[in-house]
Amino acid sequence: MGRIVVTEFVSADGVVEDPGGSEHFERGGWAFETERGPEGNQFKLDETMASQALLLGRVTYDNFAASWPSREGEFADKFNTMPKYVVSSTLQDPEWDNTTVLTGDVVGEAAKLRQELDGDIVVHGSARLVQTLLDHDLVDELRLMVFPVVLGSGKRLFGDTSAKKPLRLADSRTVGDGVAILIYQPAGEEAKASNPN
Protein backbone atom coordinates (compact mmCIF):
# COMPACT_ATOMS: atom_id res chain seq x y z
CA MET A 1 0.00 0.00 0.00
CA GLY A 2 1.25 3.46 -0.88
CA ARG A 3 1.13 6.77 0.94
CA ILE A 4 -0.14 10.02 -0.56
CA VAL A 5 2.33 12.71 0.43
CA VAL A 6 1.53 16.36 -0.28
CA THR A 7 4.55 18.66 -0.54
CA GLU A 8 4.10 22.41 -0.90
CA PHE A 9 5.97 25.68 -1.03
CA VAL A 10 3.70 28.00 0.93
CA SER A 11 3.86 31.61 2.10
CA ALA A 12 3.36 32.53 5.75
CA ASP A 13 -0.24 33.47 4.90
CA GLY A 14 -0.98 30.17 3.19
CA VAL A 15 -0.55 31.10 -0.48
CA VAL A 16 0.77 28.40 -2.82
CA GLU A 17 0.24 30.17 -6.13
CA ASP A 18 3.20 30.45 -8.51
CA PRO A 19 6.17 29.98 -6.16
CA GLY A 20 8.50 29.65 -9.15
CA GLY A 21 7.29 32.65 -11.11
CA SER A 22 6.26 30.84 -14.32
CA GLU A 23 2.48 31.27 -13.99
CA HIS A 24 2.30 35.05 -14.51
CA PHE A 25 0.91 35.73 -11.02
CA GLU A 26 1.87 39.34 -10.20
CA ARG A 27 3.43 38.23 -6.90
CA GLY A 28 4.93 35.01 -8.29
CA GLY A 29 8.50 33.81 -7.89
CA TRP A 30 8.45 34.32 -4.14
CA ALA A 31 10.04 30.94 -3.30
CA PHE A 32 13.26 31.99 -5.03
CA GLU A 33 13.53 35.27 -3.12
CA THR A 34 14.53 33.47 0.12
CA GLU A 35 17.52 31.13 0.33
CA ARG A 36 16.49 27.69 1.60
CA GLY A 37 20.14 26.67 2.03
CA PRO A 38 21.91 23.33 1.55
CA GLU A 39 19.72 21.58 4.13
CA GLY A 40 16.53 22.74 2.39
CA ASN A 41 17.88 21.66 -0.99
CA GLN A 42 18.84 18.26 0.43
CA PHE A 43 15.36 17.86 1.91
CA LYS A 44 13.79 18.37 -1.54
CA LEU A 45 16.30 16.02 -3.20
CA ASP A 46 15.77 13.29 -0.60
CA GLU A 47 12.00 13.67 -0.93
CA THR A 48 12.19 13.34 -4.71
CA MET A 49 14.52 10.34 -4.67
CA ALA A 50 12.17 8.57 -2.22
CA SER A 51 9.12 9.21 -4.42
CA GLN A 52 7.64 6.26 -6.28
CA ALA A 53 5.16 8.28 -8.36
CA LEU A 54 3.79 11.78 -8.90
CA LEU A 55 0.10 12.66 -8.61
CA LEU A 56 -0.63 16.09 -10.07
CA GLY A 57 -3.42 18.45 -11.02
CA ARG A 58 -3.53 19.66 -14.61
CA VAL A 59 -1.99 23.12 -14.09
CA THR A 60 0.96 21.81 -12.10
CA TYR A 61 1.38 18.95 -14.55
CA ASP A 62 1.48 21.33 -17.53
CA ASN A 63 4.10 23.51 -15.82
CA PHE A 64 6.24 20.50 -14.89
CA ALA A 65 5.88 18.89 -18.32
CA ALA A 66 7.02 22.13 -19.97
CA SER A 67 10.20 22.39 -17.91
CA TRP A 68 11.46 19.07 -16.53
CA PRO A 69 12.04 17.06 -19.74
CA SER A 70 14.73 19.52 -20.87
CA ARG A 71 16.59 19.48 -17.54
CA GLU A 72 19.46 17.24 -16.45
CA GLY A 73 20.74 15.86 -13.16
CA GLU A 74 19.53 13.29 -10.65
CA PHE A 75 16.51 15.34 -9.58
CA ALA A 76 15.36 15.81 -13.21
CA ASP A 77 16.16 12.21 -14.10
CA LYS A 78 13.92 10.98 -11.28
CA PHE A 79 11.06 13.33 -12.22
CA ASN A 80 11.29 12.40 -15.88
CA THR A 81 11.40 8.61 -15.42
CA MET A 82 9.02 7.88 -12.55
CA PRO A 83 5.31 7.19 -13.14
CA LYS A 84 3.16 10.29 -13.27
CA TYR A 85 -0.61 10.49 -12.80
CA VAL A 86 -2.45 13.65 -13.82
CA VAL A 87 -6.04 14.45 -12.94
CA SER A 88 -7.72 15.95 -16.00
CA SER A 89 -10.97 15.72 -17.92
CA THR A 90 -9.48 17.27 -21.07
CA LEU A 91 -5.89 16.02 -21.48
CA GLN A 92 -5.84 13.41 -24.26
CA ASP A 93 -2.27 12.59 -25.27
CA PRO A 94 0.27 13.52 -22.60
CA GLU A 95 3.77 13.89 -24.02
CA TRP A 96 5.75 13.64 -20.76
CA ASP A 97 7.11 10.10 -20.40
CA ASN A 98 5.28 7.63 -18.14
CA THR A 99 2.15 9.75 -17.74
CA THR A 100 -1.29 8.28 -17.08
CA VAL A 101 -4.37 10.52 -17.22
CA LEU A 102 -6.95 10.01 -14.47
CA THR A 103 -10.47 11.02 -15.47
CA GLY A 104 -13.75 10.79 -13.63
CA ASP A 105 -13.89 10.15 -9.88
CA VAL A 106 -10.76 11.81 -8.46
CA VAL A 107 -11.34 10.43 -4.96
CA GLY A 108 -11.84 6.88 -6.23
CA GLU A 109 -8.81 7.06 -8.54
CA ALA A 110 -6.56 8.42 -5.77
CA ALA A 111 -7.74 5.75 -3.33
CA LYS A 112 -7.09 3.10 -5.97
CA LEU A 113 -3.55 4.38 -6.58
CA ARG A 114 -2.89 4.30 -2.87
CA GLN A 115 -3.99 0.66 -2.75
CA GLU A 116 -2.12 -0.47 -5.86
CA LEU A 117 1.24 1.33 -5.52
CA ASP A 118 3.93 0.91 -2.89
CA GLY A 119 5.87 3.84 -1.48
CA ASP A 120 5.27 7.57 -1.64
CA ILE A 121 2.87 9.00 -4.20
CA VAL A 122 3.86 12.66 -4.07
CA VAL A 123 1.62 15.61 -4.89
CA HIS A 124 3.37 18.91 -5.69
CA GLY A 125 1.36 22.13 -6.01
CA SER A 126 -2.08 21.14 -7.34
CA ALA A 127 -4.05 23.13 -4.74
CA ARG A 128 -7.53 22.06 -5.86
CA LEU A 129 -6.51 18.39 -5.96
CA VAL A 130 -4.90 18.70 -2.52
CA GLN A 131 -8.07 20.24 -1.07
CA THR A 132 -10.12 17.30 -2.42
CA LEU A 133 -7.64 14.72 -1.07
CA LEU A 134 -7.57 16.40 2.36
CA ASP A 135 -11.34 16.59 2.54
CA HIS A 136 -11.61 12.84 1.84
CA ASP A 137 -8.85 11.85 4.30
CA LEU A 138 -6.53 10.58 1.56
CA VAL A 139 -3.43 12.54 2.61
CA ASP A 140 -1.02 10.47 4.69
CA GLU A 141 1.57 13.22 5.13
CA LEU A 142 1.62 16.97 4.53
CA ARG A 143 5.06 18.56 4.03
CA LEU A 144 5.04 22.33 4.09
CA MET A 145 8.08 24.45 3.26
CA VAL A 146 6.90 27.77 4.70
CA PHE A 147 8.66 30.84 3.33
CA PRO A 148 8.88 33.99 5.49
CA VAL A 149 6.75 36.21 3.27
CA VAL A 150 3.17 37.45 3.39
CA LEU A 151 1.79 37.71 -0.15
CA GLY A 152 -1.62 39.11 0.73
CA SER A 153 -3.39 37.51 -2.23
CA GLY A 154 -3.24 34.41 -4.38
CA LYS A 155 -4.48 30.84 -4.38
CA ARG A 156 -4.44 29.38 -0.87
CA LEU A 157 -3.56 25.83 0.06
CA PHE A 158 -6.47 25.21 2.40
CA GLY A 159 -10.10 25.66 1.44
CA ASP A 160 -13.38 24.70 3.04
CA THR A 161 -13.61 21.15 4.37
CA SER A 162 -16.63 19.07 5.31
CA ALA A 163 -15.28 18.57 8.84
CA LYS A 164 -12.31 19.36 11.07
CA LYS A 165 -9.09 17.67 9.97
CA PRO A 166 -6.86 17.20 13.05
CA LEU A 167 -3.14 16.96 12.34
CA ARG A 168 -0.11 16.11 14.42
CA LEU A 169 3.27 17.72 13.88
CA ALA A 170 5.63 14.85 13.06
CA ASP A 171 8.74 16.96 12.41
CA SER A 172 9.85 20.56 12.10
CA ARG A 173 13.06 22.40 11.35
CA THR A 174 14.23 25.73 10.04
CA VAL A 175 16.56 25.92 7.04
CA GLY A 176 18.27 28.63 5.05
CA ASP A 177 17.10 32.18 5.71
CA GLY A 178 14.17 31.30 7.95
CA VAL A 179 12.32 28.74 5.82
CA ALA A 180 10.32 26.43 8.11
CA ILE A 181 9.81 22.80 7.13
CA LEU A 182 6.71 21.45 8.86
CA ILE A 183 5.68 17.82 8.44
CA TYR A 184 2.16 16.90 9.51
CA GLN A 185 0.33 13.59 9.63
CA PRO A 186 -3.36 12.98 10.27
CA ALA A 187 -4.40 12.73 13.91
CA GLY A 188 -7.59 11.40 15.42
CA GLU A 189 -9.93 8.58 14.47
CA GLU A 190 -9.68 9.16 10.68
CA ALA A 191 -5.92 8.63 10.87
CA LYS A 192 -6.28 5.42 12.84
CA ALA A 193 -8.73 4.06 10.28
CA SER A 194 -6.48 4.82 7.28
CA ASN A 195 -3.13 4.14 8.98
CA PRO A 196 -3.54 1.16 11.30
CA ASN A 197 0.21 1.03 12.15
Describe the structure.
By secondary structure, this protein is an alpha/beta fold. 29% of the residues lie in helices and 28% in strands. It is built from six helices and eight strands. The chain has helices spanning 37-49, 58-67, 74-81, 106-116, 127-135, 189-194, and strands at 2-11, 51-57, 84-87, 99-102, 119-124, 141-147, 167-175, 179-186. It has an eight-stranded mixed sheet with strand order 4-3-2-5-1-6-8-7, with helices on both faces. A hairpin with a 3-residue loop joins strand 7 (167-175) and strand 8 (179-186). The radius of gyration is 16 Å and the shape is globular.
Cα shape: globular
Helix and strand pattern: EHEHHEEHEHEEEH
Q: Give the N-to-C terminal Cα separation.
A: 12 Å
How confident is the prediction overall: mean pLDDT? 93
- The biggest beta sheet, please? 8 strands, mixed
Please tell me how large the radius of gyration is: 16 Å
**Care to count the β-strands?**
8
How would you classify the helix and strand content by structural class?
alpha/beta
The number of helical segments is 6
Multimeric state: single chain
| Spatial strand order of the main sheet | 4-3-2-5-1-6-8-7
Q: Helix content range of the residues, please?
A: 25-40%
The low-pLDDT segments are: none
- Strand percent estimate: 25-35%
Secondary structure layout:
Blueprint: E1 2-11, H1 37-49, E2 51-57, H2 58-67, H3 74-81, E3 84-87, E4 99-102, H4 106-116, E5 119-124, H5 127-135, E6 141-147, E7 167-175, E8 179-186, H6 189-194
Parallel strand pairs: 1-5, 1-6, 2-3, 2-5, 3-4
Antiparallel strand pairs: 6-8, 7-8
